[in-house]
Amino acid sequence: MSSALLTCVYRVASNCGTGAERSRNEPMQQTTHKTAYSANSGLILVAYVVYCDNTIRNMMNPGKRYTCSEGGESYSYNKTLKTHVSQFNHERNVMCHDRKECGLENSFMKVKCPLCDISVLSKKNYCDHLSMKRAVSIAPEETDFASFQEFCEWKKQTERKTLSLYVKKCGSYRTSDNVTRHSFVCYRSGQYVSKSKGIRRMKIQGINKIGGVCPSSIEVTEAGDGSCKVKYVVTHVGHQNGVRHLDLTEEERNKLAVDMANKVPLQAILDKVVDTLSDSMLEHIYLLTEKYLYKIEQCNNLRSEVMRQKDDGISVETWVNEINASDNPCVLFYKLQDTSSQSHPLLSSQDIVLIIMNNAPCEILKKHGSDCISIDGTHGTNGYSFELITLLVLDDLRQGFPCAFRISNRSDQDVLSLFLIK
Q1: How far is residue 293's CA from residue 287's CA, in Å, rounded to a whole number?
Q2: Do 256 and 296 contact (CB within 8 A), yes or no?
Q3: Neighbours of 120 (CB within 10 A)
Q4: CA pair distance 15, 23, nearest whole angstrom
């Protein structure tokens, strides 16, 4: 311990209990409490040990400096060096260390490079990293528009031309000077968070997210009079633009939904799309399939007269009510799930039973039912594990003719007895 530090400790110890104040000229930085117990006197002496500032520390450790291995800056404290490492580097203002080199967790590093395992603090540092480490030039293009609607049209044409898509990073906000700012980023930026249970395999085309940040973006500044100033970064990093990772636009989906609502056959819709194919530009709509059209039908509840609602239970109940209200009802019995039946207490609340038979099959059953009756079961054809039971008779040609149908989650004696009674 140096003489300066011993002198400082002696002054504090001599003033302990007297209320004497420390001199303003004494350089001090931090104090801690230490308690010394004396076995002979039984007295407790509380001394405030003063840790001196940089001058005294340098006297204790002459020439001790903490130097940045990449930037070359030196600091008196290791804490100051860590602050430099966690924020900025030398004059290039680039993160000089990754999380392994600096020994920090760097949980606050928000921008990750998709080309290497480097996370930086801000997008500016990320652009500098790409320009110096990866030789990627990031130069924004500035454009002015008379209105926000004009910008939206330009954005749509740009996305179609470059086979890309820009989405809002966050909500728009307005500054104190009545200026609204909009931020659009490349839709492939970000980390993929899986919500699946691992039952289905990953698609062959892969995921949309690249596990990092793509520098391509659009920054819009909308003035109070409606005019817009746009900064557009064209360069994409970490992926290639293509139609396989794009989706149909809202305008295209609505146009297809209108055609399906007008009862246009699906094959005719596909042929119409193929007829518009040109060699000048490939678009995602040219990859349209029947499966995607079925998806649009489901989202817009357009699946002919069978699909009434997105929820299958509500859709079936709606269909049953419409059939029973018609002139030729064919539903003999129906019990919905999560309901109880007082007339049939053997059915639990989780059971579903649907029995269907029309008037014409009923007459055939009465005519040929005394000869031979057959029951056939079909299972494993739907996602709910419901079983279809068909009641058949032999007609005049000695061929099986279906007369009644039963759909249920059970196939035991109670449900079969109910089916035959009805």
Answers
A1: 11
A2: yes
A3: 22
A4: 11
Instruction: Tell which residue, 340, 357, 343, 333, has the closest CA to residue 408.
Output: 333
Q: What is the pLDDT of residues 245-260, one digit of tens each?
A: 888 888 888 888 888 8
How many angstroms separate the Cα of 112 from the Cα of each of 123, 127, 215, 333?
9, 11, 11, 60
Neighbours of 218 (CB within 10 A): 23
Any idea of the CA torsion for 10, 14, 19, 25, to the nearest 10 degrees?
-30
Residue 393 structure tokens: 């008779």
Rounded to whole angstroms, how far apart are CA atoms 189 and 237?
10
Q: Let me know: does 248 contact 285? Beta carbons within 8 Å.
A: yes
Considering the domain delimited by 141-192+208-233, tell me its CATH architecture. Answer: Single Sheet (2.20)
CA distances 194 to 206, 207, 213, 257, Å, are: 12, 10, 18, 29
Cα gap 240→327, rounded to integer Å: 60
- Tokens 């009805």 belong to residue: 422
Domain with CATH 2.20.25 in the chain: 141-192+208-233
CA atoms within 13 A on the CB side of 264: 16
Residue recorded with tokens 């007459």: 363
**End-to-end CA separation in angstroms for the chain:** 101
pLDDT given at position 105 = 38
Q: What is the pLDDT of residues 337-391, one digit of tens each?
A: 888 887 888 888 888 899 999 888 888 888 888 888 888 888 777 778 888 999 9
